[in-house]
Amino acid sequence: MPTDYRMPLWLLKLGALINVYFLMTTLGLSADVADPHVVIPAQILFAVSAYRCLFPNRYKDNVVLHDTVLSSTLVTRVLATFVEVAWIYQFSHLIRLQNEAHVGWVDALSWLMLIQVLISQAFVWGAIVTGRLSYYFYEELGWGVIFAANTVASAYLYSTAEGLGETEILLQLNLLFGLFYLPWQLIHVRALHADAATNDKRNPVSWSSIKGRLGDSLHQRTRATDADSWGGAVGLTWMVAYWASLIPVWVHQVVLVLTR
Questions:
Q1: pTM of structure
Q2: Structurally, how many domains does the chain consist of?
Q3: Per DSSP, which regions of the chain are E strands?
């Protein structure tokens, strides 16, 4: 594996072009077919993903490729908060749309996804202002809960619903993602837990430290391209999939299917 990510980080900028293209296709949709519960979250994701491809950042140690406030953890995290809530809202809305029989526990799982993403936002902000890596563990554990709920609900709908038509592929994508993501996320959270166990003891928390870390999230930036600073292969895979390929393509497919 390469030990320097300079080239992959620069190539990540190509993902901005993909996201801008997807954004432009959604802006051209007519009001007759554009469900705002589907399209607006997608537009938020495309815009923010393009931004993050241009100004990549890793929250831990405020690692950046470009030493500019646009790459700062604070700016990036504010944008990410909006996009993550919007994205999961779109997916939870999709579950409710396909739950035509109004099965109660399926709707409940869809709302659990939205509640959990809000809880995960609290944990990631807690990690940023306290330096406690255990909060990243709980944040990512929450993402496991979100997609476990999405997978279970999708499996039920796929096995019981009739006449799904073109939306059938969206349930298939949910199931395929869950099949690969959930085992990967298990490995990821175990690594985070081990990292937190050795790190958190060195980070006492006080009001002054919280204010200091919040300021650091805007002003402190560590320019680096080495693999370790960016989380190694796991970190690189996450960035490429989330900002530049898998997630934008998936969300765009949702828009295409539901606006035909």
A1: 0.93
A2: 1
A3: 57-58, 63-64, 222-223
